[in-house]
UniProtKB/TrEMBL annotation:
<protein>
    <submittedName>
        <fullName>Class I SAM-dependent rRNA methyltransferase</fullName>
    </submittedName>
</protein>
<dbReference type="InterPro" id="IPR041532">
    <property type="entry name" value="RlmI-like_PUA"/>
</dbReference>
<keyword id="KW-0808">Transferase</keyword>
<dbReference type="InterPro" id="IPR002478">
    <property type="entry name" value="PUA"/>
</dbReference>
<dbReference type="Pfam" id="PF17785">
    <property type="entry name" value="PUA_3"/>
</dbReference>
<dbReference type="GO" id="GO:0008168">
    <property type="term" value="F:methyltransferase activity"/>
</dbReference>
<keyword id="KW-0963">Cytoplasm</keyword>
<dbReference type="InterPro" id="IPR015947">
    <property type="entry name" value="PUA-like_sf"/>
</dbReference>
<dbReference type="GO" id="GO:0032259">
    <property type="term" value="P:methylation"/>
</dbReference>
<keyword id="KW-0698">rRNA processing</keyword>
<dbReference type="Pfam" id="PF10672">
    <property type="entry name" value="Methyltrans_SAM"/>
</dbReference>
<keyword id="KW-0489">Methyltransferase</keyword>
<dbReference type="InterPro" id="IPR029063">
    <property type="entry name" value="SAM-dependent_MTases_sf"/>
</dbReference>
<dbReference type="InterPro" id="IPR019614">
    <property type="entry name" value="SAM-dep_methyl-trfase"/>
</dbReference>
<comment type="similarity">
    <text>Belongs to the methyltransferase superfamily. RlmI family.</text>
</comment>
<dbReference type="InterPro" id="IPR036974">
    <property type="entry name" value="PUA_sf"/>
</dbReference>
<keyword id="KW-0694">RNA-binding</keyword>
Length: 399
């Protein structure tokens, strides 16, 4: 882009960018010099003309610019930019021990702001990368992103799949369709390994990018507590916690999800574990299942989808977490363990803990916190963007 538009900030509205926060809100803009279309790379200046950085413009939402680079030497993205950013993200995963290992070949390569690429998620499943754009700027940059991925991975990458149709905002790209940016489907089941556990992943029609990678460390912790226990995994999706519990020696594992397709994948993954004889799956509403079944469990997982995606829904979400956790606690045997989670970004760890406390009071059950949980290291949080810390969880011992 030869003549990018320039976003000029109001006087005093440049402090967050000087602290490298990656969002410019629409209310901070004094004027736009030139013509900025949705998704365009733009320059961002202070009121005195000082260049503060460059980013992707988004005129339709409260976040008007997502920053890609900061400072007076910032330049618009080039092919070298994408290769460097993706290479940096890959090298971090190498240092974390997530690449080139025999027992794990699934990891998050790019976690949006946490890797300096706001609006972009990339998950790797063996030899396939799944790209998900959450902004129109990243959506328009998909060809450059795909080229950068091929430069970083070389022949270790068989295919790149774009899963952005459901995540780009509003009507920014009404004709968007998911599909392969490079390579194609090989028509066979794709099985990945995580900590030695095998999972079938469907990135084409599954939720998110096909697998909930962010619970890897928490699944590993659950395995430590599973031997000999009766386990209930709710909102199980493809059965991640269920497989870990089965292979760790749980006495039995029950999995519940409202999606019949998710239950089918859970049953398949239980088969891959070779312990399906100790597993039963139910396609049912979780609260309905808890209401209509009287069985007690020694370990229970509550991992619902986000109850609140904006501040206006936060109070209702907290009431929902209280209701769900009270119902779950009622099904725990004395001395049982509750793994309970929230992935609602607008619900802080303190508010979530308060909702779980209210649930324990309502259930009349003493409880102790054994662990406070969060997202794994391949979902990093920028020090300058604390909003990137979305996953929070508790492990409770319930009397």
């Amino acid at each position: 882009m030869l003549n990018p538009a320039t976003i000029v900030l109001k006087n005093g509205k440049d402090h967050s960018l000087r602290r490298r926060h990656p969002w410019v809100f629409s209310g901070a803009i004094a004027r736009v010099k030139g013509e900025a279309q949705e998704g365009d790379p733009v320059r961002v200046e202070a009121i005195d003309g000082e260049l503060l950085g460059v980013g992707h413009f988004s005129g339709g939402g409260s976040i008007a610019v997502r920053m890609l680079d900061f400072g007076q030497n910032a330049t618009l993205p080039t092919a070298e930019y994408w290769e460097e950013k993706l290479g940096n993200a890959y090298r971090l995963r190498q240092r974390l021990g997530l690449t080139g290992t025999a027992d794990t070949n699934v990891f998050r390569l790019v976690h949006a702001e946490g890797d300096g690429l706001p609006g972009l998620i990339i998950d790797v499943y063996g030899d396939v990368a799944v790209v998900q754009a959450h902004s129109i700027g990243m959506y328009r940059a998909r060809p450059e992103i795909a080229a950068g991925l091929r430069a970083v991975f070389g022949d270790r990458l068989r295919a790149i799949y774009d899963k952005s149709a459901e995540t780009i905002p509003g009507n920014a790209a009404p004709d968007a369709k998911n599909g392969y940016l490079f390579g194609e489907s090989n028509g066979t089941e794709h099985v990945v390994q995580e900590n030695g556990h095998r999972f079938a992943v469907d990135w084409e029609t599954g939720q998110k990018t096909g697998f909930f990678i962010d619970q890897r460390d928490n699944r590993d912790l659950l395995a430590r507590y599973s031997p000999g226990r009766r386990v209930l995994n709710t909102f199980c999706y493809t059965g991640g916690f269920s497989v870990y519990a089965l292979e760790a020696g749980a006495e039995l594992v029950h999995s519940v999800d409202s999606s019949k397709k998710a239950i089918a994948l859970t049953e398949r993954n239980a088969e891959l574990s070779h312990h399906a004889d100790r597993h039963a799956a139910y396609a049912d509403d979780v609260l309905g299942f808890l209401k209509n079944h009287s069985a007690e469990y020694d370990l229970l997982v509550l991992d619902p989808p986000a109850f609140a995606k904006h501040m206006g829904a936060r109070h209702a979400a907290l009431m929902g977490y209280k209701r769900l956790n009270a119902a779950g606690i009622a099904h725990l045997a004395p001395g049982g363990l509750l793994f309970t989670f929230s992935c609602s970004q607008v619900v802080s760890p303190e508010l979530f803990e308060g909702a779980v406390l209210a649930a324990a009071i309502e259930a009349g059950r003493p409880a102790r916190i054994l662990h406070r949980l969060t997202q794994p290291a391949d979902h990093p949080v920028s020090l300058f963007h604390p909003e990137g810390a979305y996953l929070k969880g508790l492990v409770l011992a319930v009397e």
